[in-house]
């Protein structure tokens, strides 16, 4: 009955909203990362906002199962396959609308006359292609803990998403809750089904909450579209990347909730550092100022072009915990290296992640050459070279780089062709075409390419040199003699580390002249053009091998072997920096300087 439904909404009404929660539910971003301390608000806030989506009252209209939109928006997205038509319609649409999504409404904000307030067209109900939300974590709800008794935690201990969602979801919405090993899906009634909204009738259909475990194969969750995906704790990278194709049809979003700790891999690099918006509570801002001497803003807009928003909050920000309880909890927690409290209480990324190049920062090292007036004429004035990490099976990694007379390296072109699709002759022709008439001081390749082919007796290096010689004769490119680069020692790797560190110091190209101890010198730096995404990502992601599970970190030292994944562009760059020919070009002395040397007794 309606009375029973009202009674069941009591628990839902007990949710304590905070300022940060109100920020959170208004974020329209494609990716949202919640990185707070333990027992802050991430799990409850995320579960609660999914209930809002099901009820149709989430502030970001398009995230609701039910939402209303201008019929012209429907027409626009009906033409996405024809790009020319789509962009033409988009231009017209934006003349009458503030943004693509400004003419979307949840059921509370829907205009009573069902007329778009921006253009005067009719509103329609958005037609959903799927009604499935995915909740993913390390374990499924069926993997039960050993706690007995009638408590919220007794049924499902390892999986926190399931009990937290059921805590806030009104029971009358649950149609089927018989989760088993074979079927880990929670089926809900559509609360708005068979309802009239003015002259619009909404029929509705069942809504599914699909629980998924990280241990399941990636392909096990492929194929079906979802409205949204919530990952609790860091998932494996391949699992994370596989979710995005599943969200395309409904313009869905990804939510990642975790407390930074040991064993994290890509989260800091690919989410936190790429965030377009960072929201912090006053407690977090105070921590940064008092403990690290950094002044940060509660609302920070970066220059990132990634549609990512990040939230940082502390355990202290939990409105259900008293300050005394919080202090008592962390006073008893051992903190031998000074990082445990920072991560567990405040959600600060402190732990070393095993990254090889820890200073690599997308926002600093990746540059738009147009911003600095760097064009082909400037590149041709550098000392330039090509370097090639060759592979018989994995994609190759090829880098074009130049070094200026002031000791700044610019990685200005990259290519990662698959050896399955590009035979050597065709690959050489394409490289020659890409290189045009650039002249290189050296052309270096992995010594693996110097291994003779069992059938022809020739090495890949010999075949490439023959091809480039013939291409030069044919007027394609300037040729190039390829030779193996040095793979011994870590001189190249150390040089990359030094340059990355110096780039952080000077912050931008053409700013590397510094004065130290009364002497003026130029710091060696490195900058990666923004189109060289794989080279930048490799420098960011290459790390030491890690143990399969975080539990192994508790009893074993970190592995000291370098992982093969993400190593290829790094190896190519290392090989180049070991070569003595790739050095800053010495500027010739001006006539006045030569005369001065002669006058001082120099050779005439």
UniProtKB/TrEMBL annotation:
Gene3D superfamilies: 3.30.420.280, P-loop containing nucleotide triphosphate hydrolases (3.40.50.300). InterPro entries: P-loop_NTPase. This is Putative terminase. The lineage of its organism: unclassified sequences, metagenomes, organismal metagenomes.
């Amino acid at each position: 009955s309606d009375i029973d439904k009202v009674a069941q909404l009591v628990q839902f009404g007990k949710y304590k909203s905070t300022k940060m929660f109100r920020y959170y539910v208004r974020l329209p971003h494609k990716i949202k990362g919640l990185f707070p301390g333990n027992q802050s608000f991430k799990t409850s806030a995320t579960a609660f906002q999914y209930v809002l989506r099901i009820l149709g009252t989430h502030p970001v209209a398009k995230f609701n199962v039910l939402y209303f939109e201008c019929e012209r928006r429907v027409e626009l997205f009906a033409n996405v396959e024809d790009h020319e038509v789509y962009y033409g319609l988009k231009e017209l649409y934006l003349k009458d609308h503030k943004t693509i999504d400004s003419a979307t409404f949840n059921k509370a904000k829907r205009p009573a006359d069902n007329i778009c307030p921006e253009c005067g067209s009719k509103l329609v109900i958005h037609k959903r292609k799927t009604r499935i939300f995915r909740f993913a974590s390390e374990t499924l709800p069926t993997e039960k803990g050993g706690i007995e008794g009638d408590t919220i935690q007794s049924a499902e201990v390892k999986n926190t998403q399931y009990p937290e969602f059921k805590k806030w979801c009104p029971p009358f919405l649950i149609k089927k809750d018989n989760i088993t090993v074979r079927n880990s899906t929670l089926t809900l009634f559509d609360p708005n089904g068979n309802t009239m909204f003015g002259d619009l009738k909404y029929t509705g259909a069942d809504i599914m909450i699909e629980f998924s475990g990280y241990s399941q194969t990636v392909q096990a969750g492929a194929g079906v579209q979802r409205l949204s995906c919530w990952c609790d704790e860091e998932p494996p990278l391949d699992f994370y990347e596989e979710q995005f194709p599943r969200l395309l049809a409904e313009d869905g979003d990804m939510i990642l909730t975790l407390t930074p700790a040991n064993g994290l891999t890509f989260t800091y690099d690919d989410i936190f550092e790429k965030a377009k918006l960072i929201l912090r509570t006053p407690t977090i801002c105070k921590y940064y100022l008092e403990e690290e001497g950094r002044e940060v803003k509660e609302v920070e807009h970066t220059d990132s072009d990634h549609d990512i928003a990040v939230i940082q909050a502390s355990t202290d920000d939990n409105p259900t915990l008293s300050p005394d309880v919080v202090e008592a909890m962390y006073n008893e927690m051992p903190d031998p290296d000074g990082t445990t409290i920072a991560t567990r209480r405040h959600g600060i990324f402190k732990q070393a992640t095993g990254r090889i190049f820890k200073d690599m920062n997308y926002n600093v090292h990746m540059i738009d050459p147009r911003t600095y007036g760097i064009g082909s004429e400037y590149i041709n004035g550098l000392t330039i070279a090509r370097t090639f990490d060759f592979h018989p099976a994995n994609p190759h990694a090829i880098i074009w780089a130049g070094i200026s007379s002031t000791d700044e390296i610019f990685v200005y072109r990259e290519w990662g062709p698959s050896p399955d699709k590009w035979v050597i002759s065709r690959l050489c022709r394409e490289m020659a075409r890409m290189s045009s008439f650039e002249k290189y001081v050296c052309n270096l390749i992995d010594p693996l390419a110097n291994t003779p082919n069992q059938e022809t007796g020739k090495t890949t290096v010999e075949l490439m040199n023959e091809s480039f010689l013939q291409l030069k004769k044919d007027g394609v490119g300037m040729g190039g003699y390829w030779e193996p680069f040095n793979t011994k020692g870590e001189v190249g790797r150390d040089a990359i580390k030094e340059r990355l560190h110096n780039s952080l110091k000077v912050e931008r190209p053409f700013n590397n002249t510094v004065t130290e101890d009364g002497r003026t010198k130029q710091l060696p730096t490195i900058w990666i053009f923004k189109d060289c995404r794989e080279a930048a990502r490799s420098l960011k992601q290459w790390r030491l091998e890690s143990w399969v599970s975080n539990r192994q970190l508790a009893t074993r030292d970190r592995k000291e072997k370098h992982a093969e994944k993400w190593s290829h562009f790094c190896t190519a760059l290392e090989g180049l920096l070991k070569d003595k020919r790739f050095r800053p070009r010495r500027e010739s002395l001006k006539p006045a300087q030569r005369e001065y040397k002669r006058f001082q007794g120099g050779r005439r």
